[in-house]
Amino acid sequence: MKPRTSITLISIMLVCVTSPLHAEEQGGVHPYLDQKFFVDLGMYFPDREVTLSVNGTVLGPADRIDFDEQFGLKKSDETFALNFGWRFGEKWQLGGQYFEASGKVRSALTEDVEWNDLVFGEGTGVAVGQEFSLLRVFFARRFKSGENSEFGLGAGIHWLEIGAFIEGNATINGVDLGFRKESVSADAPLPNIGIWYTHSFSPKWAFKGRYDWLSAKVGDYDGTLINASLGVNYQMFEHVGLGLSYNIFTLDVNVRKNDWKGNFETAYKGPYLNMSFYW
């Protein structure tokens, strides 16, 4: 997404947060605070950054492949995204999130790139790509912080699937191997702790924020995860609303699998525009 478009969407969100329109509504709270279920369906417009290393080999001048700088992988994208929530009992809530993103580009290398002992030489035409998907499930205890506000503390799981590939003519020890495709992939459940907050300005307007965090060694993975969101929602009809938020997901993880000993670092940051359904 172009910077001007992102700034426009964020400005709209801030106007909504500070809007005096809530004074027009009397009584009641937004459905996020009194309905049992909600589902947000929409489009996520993140700026994307991807770097990785593979099996400890030299990958360019910084020992890593920067997909943006070295291959010109598109830095912005748009993808379908989903959020859902289930309020059960008097004090508990189950939430979730899903989105996936992938990118592929063809490029002529401006320097040698070594991947898993194979060398893709300067001037070689290659295709490179990366894949990423996230499924988040979060279980929290709700606490009232006022008549129109509540917050929650809890724990969750992020199920991640990550991967990358490069394909083209390659050599090893100076011997031409012809066309080769090298790829790495990993999937893992990463636990996290988190907090969220919801405030109802009126039955029509609500503000929501959440922050998930992990910094730990889990099985074959060791790293840091941050997943955060800040936004507003407007109830247009009894069971239908419109939402706008700014979402951030960052992951910096060391991988120690048999077929991938290296690092994967990615960041997705951008606005999320959605339709909401509550009942």
Task: Report what the structure shows.
Strand 13 and strand 14 form a beta hairpin. The chain is mainly beta. The chain contains three helices and 14 strands. The chain is elongated.
Helix/strand layout:
Layout: H1 3-18, H2 31-34, E1 37-44, E2 47-53, E3 65-66, H3 67-71, E4 79-88, E5 92-108, E6 113-115, E7 118-120, E8 125-146, E9 149-172, E10 175-200, E11 205-218, E12 221-235, E13 240-257, E14 260-278
Antiparallel strand pairs: 1-4, 1-14, 2-3, 2-14, 4-5, 5-8, 6-7, 8-9, 9-10, 10-11, 11-12, 12-13, 13-14
Summed up, what is this model?
This protein has 279 residues and is mainly beta.
Spatially, the strands of the biggest sheet line up as 1-4-5-8-9-10-11-12-13-14
Q: If you compute it from the alpha carbons, what radius of gyration comes out, rounded to the nearest whole angstrom?
A: 22 Å
Intertermini distance: 33 Å
**In the CATH hierarchy, what is the class?**
Mainly Beta
> What best-fitting shape do the alpha-carbon axes yield?
elongated
CATH architecture: Beta Barrel
**Based on DSSP secondary structure assignment, what is the total number of beta strands?**
14
CATH fold field value: Lipocalin
Q: In percent, how helical is the residue content?
A: under 10%
The share of residues in extended strands comes to over 45%
Average residue-wise pLDDT: 84
Number of separate domains: 1
Specify the structural class.
mainly beta
For this structure, what is the CATH homologous superfamily?
OMPT-like
SS element count, helices? 3
